[in-house]
Design brief:
The complex is a heterodimer of chains A (about 300) and B (about 250).
Chain A: H1 2-22, E1 34-38, E2 49-57, E3 69-78, E4 83-88, E5 94-97, E6 101-104, H2 107-125, E7 131-135, H3 137-147, E8 150-154, E9 158-160, E10 166-168, E11 171-175, H4 177-185, H5 194-218, H6 222-232, E12 234-236, H7 240-252, E13 258-262, E14 265-270, E15 273-278, H8 282-292
Parallel strand pairs in A: 1-12, 2-7, 4-13
Antiparallel strand pairs in A: 1-7, 2-3, 3-4, 5-6, 8-11, 9-10, 14-15
Helix pairs in contact in A: 3-4, 3-6, 4-5, 6-7
Chain B: H1 36-56, E1 74-75, E2 81-88, H2 96-121, H3 127-134, H4 137-146, E3 156-169, E4 175-188, E5 191-206, E6 209-222, H5 225-249
Parallel strand pairs in B: 1-3, 2-3
Antiparallel strand pairs in B: 3-4, 4-5, 5-6
Classes of the chains: A alpha+beta (about 300), B alpha/beta (about 250).
Chain lengths: ~300, ~250
């Protein structure tokens, strides 16, 4: 009886120790979390402007850096004017990917990671990006669980059980992690499909910023809860000091001074592939965003 | 801003944005309307005289009670400080070393808060020197520009409330953030003003020293006790009258 009990304990301990490997995450159990880093080797001062590339991959498990990027946003903050902007790119945007030719923009990350996608956007917009942040499904849900349910106002019911799994009623809602993920993934129920989804993702980012500001206004040390949440789910290539100061800067920005704009596009096709072509009008948008880091 | 990382650049003074709460100069009592240019002249003259008098004064008197030289404000018995410090951002159980490191920061952070607010409220002649020492270069200037604390000569100062709550980032204990609130009653030229002050402070520890690197500060006059009591009596009276009306209408 005693030998059986010991054997059972050993087996249980073995399974517990091996569980991360059995899940397929390898030794890097945070591979499906949020990853972030600098786009360039060194930060280059840019008149108080900071640009962060925010990406969401369709990786349900495994390494989100080698999956397609379904959410592509450039977040700009102007530390002088304390205004900002979120510039959104639909995932089917037909662009030139350096070294690969023309393709859908969401293929860039699959081929060359966030760095290639960053270079693609820098070439397209002329904006020098400073940081990138990437999350997959698990990292996104993990973050929301940590920071708290995110309040958001839904203008209409969103019901997409066969797609994103969203079952959301219109009105003011506080979205827990799984509902938040469903919301930012939903596209089929919208007339504009992916374009509407992209805009909703940016709206959600703004609501997260609002939540951060509200929590920090009540208790400034709440910023450390957010930093801890980010660090728990990330392999950060940003120093702790930079992260702290970025977080404090974020708390200083009024959400109402951040514009949310999706690049103008038209629907088309290339071969059998359905794509969107970015309008030449976007050039003026890039120029304004490059000059002011603001879309307000 | 050239050559300066935007994260090191001075954050805009709260007055540069539309404030959620107002920052008002305590030399103007909220309950009285005064012709602004005359007040400005009087204030400038008062500040000039006070500055001259304070620079001549020997030593500082942060916590003294009792009679003072006539060119310094009388500092009465002050409210005790209640400062709470706690570890925040904990993701796993801290080790003994981490706990010790966090505990060791409480003293320096508490001392910083006390020293800063003594300079702001009890010994204004030292405010510039103290702020420049306790703040980073990029934060000191906008903080002084915001003019928190007492900025004109006061005959007497009494703090009624002094509280602080500082969260220390675990486990490194090299960053902290928190809120400090002070309520003080100031007498100046026969007028008594109560002010409410609040600052949110973000701090970093570098080369063994804590410094404030970002802040948000807010200060406004508060109604005096007699006015508060009168306002309360008026509200109660109004409520009774409304109840009587309802009773009459049934």
């Amino acid at each position: 009886m005693t030998r059986r009990a010991v054997a059972l304990v050993v087996i249980i301990l073995f399974i517990v120790a091996a569980f991360p490997m059995l899940r397929g995450g390898g030794s890097d159990s945070r591979a499906s979390g949020v990853v972030a880093g600098r786009v360039h080797e060194t930060f280059q001062p840019n008149d108080g402007k900071i640009y962060i590339l925010v990406l969401g991959s369709d990786a349900r498990h495994g390494n989100p850096q080698r999956a397609r990027s379904d959410a592509i946003h450039i977040v700009g903050i102007n530390a002088e004017t304390m205004r900002g902007g979120i510039l959104n790119f639909p995932r089917d945007s037909w662009v030139d990917i350096p070294g690969y030719g023309s393709a859908k923009i969401n293929e860039a990350m699959e081929r060359g990671g966030p760095q290639l996608l960053a270079r693609t956007l820098e070439k397209l917009t002329g904006i020098r990006l400073d940081y990138w942040v990437l999350t997959g499904f698990e990292g996104f849900e993990g973050l929301i669980r940590r920071i708290g349910n995110v309040p958001i106002t839904l203008k209409r019911d969103i019901y997409d059980p066969g797609g994103s799994g969203a079952r959301l009623k219109a009105g003011r809602r506080r979205l827990p992690s799984w509902r938040a993920l469903a919301y930012v993934r939903t596209r089929k129920v919208f007339k504009d499909g992916d374009i509407a989804r992209t805009s909703n993702q940016a709206r959600f980012l703004l609501q997260m910023l609002k939540l951060l500001n509200k929590q920090v206004e009540r208790d400034p040390s709440a910023v450390f809860k957010w930093i801890a949440a980010g660090r728990e789910f990330t392999d950060l290539n940003i120093s702790a000091d930079e992260l702290f100061r970025l977080s404090v800067l974020a708390t200083q920005v009024d959400v109402s001074r951040i514009g949310n704009v999706t690049v103008p596009v038209s629907i088309g096709s290339v071969g059998a592939s359905s794509v969107v072509f970015i309008s030449p009008r976007a050039t003026a948008l890039y120029s304004r965003f490059r000059e002011k880091a603001s879309l307000r | 801003m050239d050559g300066l990382h935007p994260l090191d650049a001075p954050l805009p003074s709260p007055t540069a944005r539309k404030p959620k709460r107002k920052i008002l100069d305590i030399s103007i009592a909220a309950s009285r309307r005064i012709w602004v240019p005359l007040v400005a002249v009087v204030m400038l003259a008062t500040v000039g005289v006070a500055a001259y008098a304070l620079t001549r004064r020997e030593g500082s008197s942060n916590h003294q009670s009792g009679p003072q030289p006539s060119d310094s404000p009388v500092i009465l018995e002050q409210a005790p400080w209640r400062i709470q410090t706690l570890a925040t951002g904990i993701t796993s159980k801290p080790t003994k070393e981490e706990k010790d490191r966090l505990r060791n920061q409480r003293g320096p952070l508490t001392a910083l808060v006390k020293e800063l607010h003594s300079a702001l409220f009890l010994d204004p002649s030292t405010r510039k020197r103290v702020v420049r020492r306790l703040f980073s270069a990029s934060a000191a200037r906008p903080f002084l520009s915001a003019r928190p604390g007492i900025t004109v000569a006061a005959d007497s100062v009494r703090t009624l409330w002094r509280r602080g709550r500082i969260g220390i980032q675990a486990p490194g204990a090299r960053r902290a953030a928190g809120t400090v609130t002070v309520v003080a009653r100031i007498e100046s030229d026969g007028e008594t003003v109560r002010i409410g002050y609040r600052s949110d402070l973000f701090l970093e520890k570098k080369r063994g020293r804590w410094r404030v690197v970002a802040f948000e500060t807010d200060q406004e006059p508060l109604p005096e006790s007699e006015e508060r009591n009168k306002a309360s009596r008026d509200r109660n009276e109004k409520g009774r009258k409304n109840d009587n009306k309802k009773g009459a209408s049934r």
